[in-house]
Amino acid sequence: MIVAHALGKSFAAAGGTRGAARVQAVVDVGFEAVDGEITGLLGANGAGKSTTLRMLATLLRPDTGQACIDGHDIVTDVLGARRQLGYMPHEAGIYPRLSARENVHYYARLSGLNGQDAVRRTGELVEQLGMAGFADRRTAGFSQGQKTKVALARALVHAPRTLMLDEPTNGLDVMATRGLREVLHSLAARGHCVLFSSHVMQEVAVLCDRVAIIADGRIAMDDTLPRLLARTGQPSLEDAFVVALGHDVSTGAAGAAGACT
Amino acid sequence: MVIIAFKEIVDNLRDRQTVFYALLFGPVLLPLLLGGSLAVSFKQLSIDFDEVTELAVAGIERAPSLMTFLAGRNVDAVPAPNDTDTIEAAVRDGDVPIVLQIDADYERALREGRPAGLTIHLDEADKASAKAARRVEALLGVWERTNDQLRLQHRGLDPTVFDSLDIVTNDVSSDGASGQLLASILPFLLIVSMVMGGFYLAVDTTAGERERHSLEPLLGLPVARHHIVLGKFGATLAFVALSGLLCAFSVWALFRFFPADLLGTRLRFDAPTVSAALLLAGPLMPFIAAVLIVISASTRSTKQAQTYLGLLMVVPMAPFFVLQFLDLEPSPWTMPWPMLSQYVLLERSVLGLPVPAWHAALSVGGTALAAALLLWLACTFYRRERILS
């Protein structure tokens, strides 16, 4: 379970001099992602999704606010929070000279599993994610879908209760996307908390139980999908998104939806 | 920590570039290039009077006693056409290294007590020709002195009357400048090959990891940052140590083929000396590994890190060149400095000079302290958020 409250984060502008105005990437982000559900963090490019996930993954220290992963504070109990969390960043970032199995095994060992358990757990994930056909090949030259599977297996290797994925369906073809959806659904069904960020409306609409809409570093709206549609009085998530951002559906739809295809 | 080190070693052993620099370039190619070219140039410069050579002599029949003298000193005369133009062309084209031309009235001049004419045709620009000429000149000098003495005695004079000075040159170093240069080659080769050996792994494990986007998920794991740094440090250290070890071995192997008389009496590259040198250079291994980790953690990309390689290579070379000009003696002021102290100590051990224990201790202490500081710096780099960007 993830509980975030009033998170804020600013960065020094790239190439800026000392004392220059800072870029406020996240201003006020607060939401909850509960166990057994898939929560979507929906926002346009540059809305603050990745920065929010990086803060929750303890890679960035928030300037303001606080957050907990299964009761572990992301600032004061960094290692505790990381133990509960499986994090798959925007880029798969797998080692090209290692095989898929070695990639997963390495993370298993680093997460504290002993040699035997690491081998067993890696085998389980290879089976579960349908990686048997390419598990023992070096990952250089893998397709995007295969890379995503390896990265997902790595994020799941220490059996975390909470899973966070940053735009996981980017670059995946239809079948790979459907496969990923099934995996996430089954994880949620087994009681895991799944948070994933996306700018793809259809993806969020199909997959998520709950949606947090983020714009300009703030959570504009946060609710279950049916309640979100009811609150905005719109028939589709896309229209609800536009309304949540404070635009008029008839005039603002083109512009806003253009940023969030 | 061990897991990270082990993974990085396996990962990088699969990388041809890293393996080439760690196992081939520093340890094998560099000593061969440097030591080999030095050996060849020493061979060209030094004259082996025991070596049997042929000497083209024009007018060979005019000086039979000289030919006998030369033959007794391993120089076999072979007849050459007695025509100055032909001789010059032959030497210039490199058909023969040199030609000794004997004047037509050589025999008569000797008989009448006049200076007898000999001409050496050589090509000074050609190393082999110049070397052959020096050998013949040296032998002719001996022959001349023998003849001088015979002439004087013939006229009832003591030949020593003409020796007003008795100059003795006593070179106590027995190694000379070339020995000093050779002695500094061992630390140079060791340090350069250790730096090269660890460099690509260090760059790959931080700057490369960032470029492949694999650093972000790694840093998100429940592993303390200093464990990650130490793991990467361990892997780099293993490659640095392996490079150093292989380099020491190939230096030892190379100098076994080196002509012993060229090394002088004190210069030693035998197994105990090379082992001692490796032991003295040992503290440099963690230091070099730490320097490499800091550089790769502070650069944004492998390209940027590689740019630093050029600058970094100056560091091990600097003491090499400085020590050629300055004769630095071990002192409490020079010993705590990493690189510099190892240069001085290694040079001394190769030259067979004593290395006091407290000098070695200061060198080890200073280097270890520097390595620890650098590791601490690397850890702070890894704790910064900027490491991801």
Describe the structure.
The complex is a heterodimer of chains A (261) and B (389). Chain A has helices at 49-56, 78-84, 100-110, 115-128, 144-156, 174-189, 201-207, 225-232, 237-244, 249-259; strands at residues 2-12, 22-33, 38-43, 64-69, 72-73, 85-88, 162-166, 193-198, 210-215, 218-224. By secondary structure, chain A is an alpha/beta fold. Chain A has a single domain (2-259), classed as Rossmann fold, CATH 3.40.50.300. A 6-stranded mixed β-sheet of chain A has the order 6-7-8-3-9-10, sandwiched between helices. In chain A, β9 (210-215) and β10 (218-224) form a beta hairpin. In chain A, α8 crosses α9 (237-244) and α9 (237-244) crosses α10 (249-259). With 389 residues, chain B is mainly alpha-helical. Helices cover 65% and strands 5% of the residues of chain B. Chain B has helices at 2-13, 16-45, 64-71, 84-92, 106-111, 127-154, 176-205, 207-211, 215-219, 225-256, 271-281, 284-298, 302-325, 340-350, 357-383, and strands at 53-58, 75-80, 99-102, 118-121. A 4-stranded mixed β-sheet of chain B has the order 2-1-3-4. The mean pLDDT of chain B is 81. The chains are: A alpha/beta (261), B mainly alpha (389). The interface between A and B is medium-sized, with 34 and 23 residues.
